[in-house]
C-alpha cells in the first residue's frame, strides 16, 4: 500500500508538472505572436512562475498599458532574480512605476539602469522654470470602445487613425480591429463631426495610420503594415510597417506605392512632410539606428525621387524609442521618446534649428503614460496630440501660451495623472455617497488642506469640478454634479476663502475616471470613483480654460 501511495504521489506530481509545462508553452506561443492580452491570461495561470514567465508576464501587461499589474510583476521579478535579469526590464519597471505615480521607486530603478542619479522632483522643478510654453489639454472624445490617435491637419479637416471599424480583423496585440484612417470636421470647441472613412484604396485589412499631406492636399503619405510576413527572432512571421505615397486624381486616391527605402525586413513609419514638401521626416528601426526606433529625414526631390534617409543623430535619438515626428511650419521638430528623461513612458519633445538641443514640453502636455503624435498650428497656437493616460489611446486638443512663472510654487502643485490638469499637491479628490451632495466628514480634512494652501497663496484661484456616476439620466446627473460643486464651494467659503477666488462647475457623468459609462456592469466601488469633486488651479499661467469636452 505504501508503494501504491508513493506511485500515485509521483504520478500526481508528474501530471501537475506536465500541465504547467503545457500552460507555459501556450503562453509562450501567444507572447511570441504578440497576442499580449491572451498571453497575460495564460501566464497568470502558471502557478510556479520562474524568471522567464515573470519577464514575459510583466512585458505583456506593459505593452497593453496595464501599468499597475506590470509594476507588480516586475517588482516580483527583481525581488527574486535581480542579479540575473537583463537591464531592459528595469527600464520598463521604472516606466511602469512612473505611470502609477511611484516616483521615488521609479527614480531608484532608473538610476540603477542608467548609472546616473535620476531625480524626478529635481527634473520637473528645473523644467518648470525653462519650458517656453504651457498647454491646456482637453480630451476630444470619451471613446473607451476604440483607440484613436495619429491626428493630422488635412486642409480644413483633420485625419486620424482609429480601431472603431468593427468590420476589420481583430489585432491579437490588443484584441481590437486593425486601424483605419478617417477624416472629420473639427469645430472651434474641439467637437468632431462628419467622420468619414478613407476609401478602400487607402484602408485595407492591414493597419493604416499617421497620414501627412502636401500643402495643396494632392499628395498623401501614410503608414500601412506590409502584407508580406517575415520571420522574427522567435520564428514568428510578422508584417513590418511601410510608408506609402498616394496621389489625388479625379477626386480619388490613386497610384498608391510604398516608398523605395521601405523594406520587408524593418519598419518605416509616422511620416511628416515639411511645409515646402522638400523633406519627409519619419521613424524607423532600419539597420544603423541608435535604438529600437530613431527619427530620420529624407529629401523629396522635384522629380519625384528620394535621397538617402539620414539619421538625425544622437542628440535626438537614444538607445530607446523615438517615434511620431512632426515638423511644424516654422521648422520645429516635435517627436515622442521614452529614452530622454521625462515624466514616464513616451513624452513629447521639441528640437529646432540644427536639432542640437532637445527639450521636454513639460507636464502640461506630458503625463506618466504615453503622450505622442503631437501636431500644432503655430499661427493659432492650437493643436492635437494622443495619449493613453486614461487607459486607451485618445485624442486631445490643446491651446498653447507663453510660460509665466506659476502663482503656486512647484512644491505645492502637481499634474493629475488621470486628467492632465494642474492641481494642488497631496490634496486629491473628495467623494460623495450615491445620489448625495452632502460633504462627508471624511472629506473635511482634504477640504481643510485646500483652505490652508489658498491662504498661503492669496492670488490662487480654484475651479471645483464635480462629477456623477453613470446611474441616472444625463439631465439628473448634471444637476447632481452641480449641487456637489456648490456644496464643496460653500464649505470653503464658510472656512474663510473669498467666493471670488472660487468657481464651481458640474460635469455630470461626462468625465469618468474609468470605463464605467453605463448604468450597469460595474461594481459599487468602481462607480464610487466617479462621484467626486476635483480642485484645479485656474490662474492663467496654469489653466486657461476650465472646460473638458467628452463625447
Topology diagram in text:
Blueprint: H1 2-32, H2 36-44, H3 51-63, H4 67-81, H5 87-99, H6 103-114, H7 120-130, E1 133-139, E2 148-154, E3 157-162, E4 170-171, E5 176-177, E6 180-186, E7 192-197, E8 208-213, E9 219-225, E10 230-231, E11 237-238, E12 241-249, E13 252-258, E14 268-273, E15 279-284, E16 294-299, E17 310-311, E18 322-327, E19 333-337, E20 347-351, E21 359-360, E22 371-377, E23 382-387, E24 394-402, E25 413-415, E26 422-424, E27 430-431, H8 444-456, E28 462-466, H9 474-494, E29 502-506, H10 524-528, E30 532-537
Parallel strand pairs: 28-29
Antiparallel strand pairs: 1-24, 2-3, 3-6, 4-5, 6-7, 8-9, 9-12, 10-11, 12-13, 14-15, 15-16, 16-17, 18-19, 19-20, 20-21, 22-23, 23-24, 25-26, 27-30, 28-30
Keywords: Cell outer membrane, Cell projection, Cilium, Flagellum, Membrane
Subcellular location: Cell outer membrane
Protein name: Flagellar motor protein MotB
Number of strands: 30
What share of the residues does DSSP label as strand, in percent?
25-35%
Which strand order do you get reading across the main beta sheet?
1-24-23-22
Q: Shape, please?
A: globular
Q: Treating each run of at least 4 consecutive H or I residues as one helix, how many helices? A: 10
CATH superfamily of the largest domain: TolB, C-terminal domain
- The CATH class of the largest domain is Mainly Beta
Helix content: 25-40%
How many structural domains are formed by the residues? 3
- Tell me the major beta sheet: 4 strands, antiparallel
Based on the coordinates given, report the CATH architecture of the largest domain.
Answer: 6 Propeller
Rg, please? 25 Å
Mean of pLDDT: 87
Structural class: alpha+beta
Unreliable spans: 11-18, 541-551
The CATH topology of the largest domain is given as Neuraminidase
- Distance N to C terminus: 70 Å
